[in-house]
Write a sequence for this structure.
């Protein structure tokens, strides 16, 4: 559990440090997991997103993920503006608080696929994503994260 919170601290420090230099979006995600969501741009085509949330899937507990994203992989034109497809690869940690693995930390890669729409005024983005996760600790298991959310861009 101490390692889990150390990872959270490192993630937050890195995102805050980088936020002084790039576009940052902070908000909430609803689904599985449900909680806080943040994204910071690396350049015009790549970003890093993360979430600090509660997971109620295979492993219930505090959920943290950090994902490297390929933004604007495909753009769909609409009359209101473009909807952009993104995908990525990252890592997911869950501090399990229920069931057979209570007290353990589930760890493994995750691969999201999502859509995002950027409003111009207010400076908000709305997104939806589905992510395949492969937990390798405490046992090998496949899980699916699904969520929709909204983030305010700075």
């Amino acid at each position: 559990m101490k390692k889990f919170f150390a990872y959270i601290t490192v993630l937050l420090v890195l995102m805050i440090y980088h936020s002084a230099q790039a576009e940052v979006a902070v908000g909430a995600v609803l689904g599985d997991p449900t909680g806080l969501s943040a994204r910071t741009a690396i350049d015009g085509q790549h970003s890093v997103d993360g979430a600090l949330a509660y997971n109620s899937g295979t492993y219930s507990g505090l959920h943290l993920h950090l994902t490297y994203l390929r933004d604007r992989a495909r753009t769909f034109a609409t009359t209101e503006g473009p909807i952009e497809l993104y995908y990525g690869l990252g890592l997911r940690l869950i501090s399990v608080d229920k069931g057979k693995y209570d007290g353990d930390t589930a760890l493994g890669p995750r691969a999201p696929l999502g859509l995002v729409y950027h409003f111009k005024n207010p400076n908000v983005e709305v997104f939806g994503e589905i992510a395949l996760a492969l937990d390798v600790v405490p046992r090998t298991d496949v899980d699916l994260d699904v969520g929709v959310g909204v983030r305010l861009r700075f």
